[in-house]
Amino acid sequence: MASIVSMVGCGLSYNSLEGLKRSKEKTFGGVGVSGGGKGRRSVLVRAETINPEIRKSEEKVVDSVIVTELSKPLTAYCRCWRSGTFPLCDGSHVKHNKATGDNVGPLLLKKQ
């Protein structure tokens, strides 16, 4: 069984869940993945910064990409890994940024 756990913008990835089975918990930029027993998995999110060095002088890092083939005029994608509607952004980065002093924001796809 192979699966991918990756963090967009952080350059971290883990390509096999087999390695996760061997240890109690692995952490990727504040997102911990652990075996819950009997085939269940749980995700533990720690309060630490996700963006250690990218554009730290900005209050919030938000990137926009213009795409011609979208069904909606604007779609926001989560980059903080805290969204309840992941992969779409629900604004959870605001609470995360206040708790950690981070400046992570969504990726905005705009229809041309």
Please supply descriptive tags for the structure shown above.
three-stranded mixed beta sheet; mainly beta; disordered N terminus; flat; 112 residues; three-stranded antiparallel beta sheet
Short structural summary:
With 112 residues, this protein is mainly β.
Explain the overall architecture:
With 112 residues, the chain is mainly β. 12% of the residues lie in helices and 38% in strands. The protein has helices at residues 18-22, 92-100; strands at residues 5-7, 12-14, 25-28, 31-37, 40-45, 61-67, 74-77, 104-111. The relative contact order is 0.18.
Mean pLDDT, to the nearest integer, reads 73
What is the CA-CA span between the terminal residues?
40 Å
Q: Helix fraction?
A: 10-25%
Placed side by side, the strands forming the largest sheet appear as 3-4-5
Number of helices: 2
Largest sheet: 3 strands, antiparallel
Keywords: 2Fe-2S, Iron, Iron-sulfur, Metal-binding
Domain Iron-binding zinc finger CDGSH type: 60-99
GO molecular function: 2 iron, 2 sulfur cluster binding; metal ion binding
InterPro entries: CISD1/2 (IPR045131), FeS-contain_CDGSH-typ (IPR018967), MitoNEET_CISD (IPR042216)
List the helices and strands and how they pair.
Layout: E1 5-7, E2 12-14, H1 18-22, E3 25-28, E4 31-37, E5 40-45, E6 61-67, E7 74-77, H2 92-100, E8 104-111
Parallel strand pairs: 6-8
Antiparallel strand pairs: 1-2, 3-4, 4-5, 7-8
